[in-house]
Automatic annotation (TrEMBL):
Pfam families: PPO1_DWL, PPO1_KFDV, Tyrosinase. Cu cation A binds at residues 171, 192, 201. This is Polyphenol oxidase II. Monomer. The keyword Disulfide bond applies. There is a cross-link at residues 175-192 (2'-(S-cysteinyl)-histidine (Cys-His)). The keyword Disulfide bond applies.
Amino acid sequence: MSSLSCSWAVPVVTTTTSSPPFSRKPSIAKRTQRFHVSCNATNDDDQNAPTSSLGKFERRNLLLGLGGVYSATQLTSNPQALAAPIQPPDLSKCGPATNLNTGQQLDYNCCPPLTNRIIDYQLPKPAVMRFRPAAHLVTREYIAKYNKAVELMKALPADDPRNYTQQANIHCAYCNGAYDQVGFQDLDIQVHNCWLFFPFHRWYLYFYERILGKLIGDPTFGLPFWNWDNPKGMTIPPIFNDTKAAIYDEKRNQNHLTSIIDLGYNGKDSGNTPLQTVANNLNIMYSEMIRNVKVIEDFMGQPYRAGDAVNPGPGTSERGSHTAVHVWGGDPRQPSGENLGNFYSAGRDSLFYSHHVNVDRMWKIWRELRGTKPKDFNDKDWLNASFLFYDENAQLVRVKVSDTLSHEKMGYVFQQVDIPWLKSRPQARVQKSKVATTSGAPTAAKVKFPLTLDKIVKILVPRPKKSRKQTDKDKEEELLVIEKIEVDTTKFVKFDVFVNDEDDKIDELDKSEYVGTFAQVPHRHKGPVKVKPSIRLGLTELLEDLDVEDDDSILVTLVPRAGDVTIGGIKIIYAST
Ligand code: C2O
């Protein structure tokens, strides 16, 4: 690819964290500022790149260095008819972010410093591997090293993009609506609730880790993972509870400092025994890593392309354990669940990075569990989606999703630890067929949708196919689809789904009857407000466990846990694995 380095005059955007909030995002504000662009192309084709009278798309593209898959002319003619990977943001148009828990504009500027040079990032051939240890197993020496690195990061000048606060701001800018989609100024960029979730955070951690490693001169330094999927790691790792350590953060839920994490957290403590919580956690992991994710997008999240409104739908891991950890960790004494419980502030707590290293590890494990099945989307709009980050040398780089497919190529490995949930295939509480038809619940066809989940709701859902052969089951997964989920996006919302659970043992998430969860970290964006995601939950294995493969229908129980939610429909479909 050609490389083009440009410099341009841009509206003044303050970059220090203490600066007062600025008024409006340039895309919303009246644009009186003219951009002046001058470029030095490094290959002949680009010598002729226009430098004046540029249309909106062309100018933006030029600012971005003419990378990606668009040529300037393609973009102007009809952006929506073409391949449409999410483009990196135009940093010069970064604007105010939104407090997603209140919907209010943040009184805080999380835009990164501007720079006049962007280069296309080439993954360096790793000379040595970085080692990511389990946070509860690290040595004293490691703890000292990690704290030293964070201390140095905090000591960098406030406007150095590698500074600790600047790094936290990356999450705020990409996740709280500070960036428009290039070419679609009425739409935000959002890296959650869609198929960008895993690759974006992988890049984020990648550079964060390299910056820390560079600061302590250790090319093998890897971030520790919070091993919340293993009973031995199911508390906040003790290294984060040392109040004198650089990685300590006061803004955490003080009741949870040493308690067992609840991966089914509902926003309040459950009253379950610790043993029940651990059992629930293991089955939550099993269901979101194995049972419900035979189809790629059900794990990775739904497609999200340039021009799409945000929130097409998160994968199991994102909406399940990932969300639970954020909300469980956030500090209820703070106005909006800061730090972990709100996207704009999450990156200010070092615990966030260890949480996400484990999320990243889940991606790796899920890929390994796929065996010979496709592990990645083979979709150019996913592979070519790109982001901007500052690397360990404070150079602004453009990175692509297609470079995140192998963590080894990215130069890091994880400490090997037991994965107990692999063997946690649950038992049925009751193995009984015809539960559905004798339940007296209405069939889906008779239910009036949209249906508000203001109490436990039971619905009989017919199965288009039954008594399937093993070969068919291997090829096609039977999926329960809960459609058009409408939520107040500014609230923490959660509901759980059970099948054939006659006695409503809704605190036991460790039985086959528990199918899965919908949950969201609060968020608000511009663009169409009524985005209604769907979730899909794998049934094939569960119906075997319940021994009801020959039944015509299943009885679905929806248990609201937090927030207001309405669903637009429920049905069973089949999708190839
Ligand atoms: Cu980008 Cu866990 O959030």
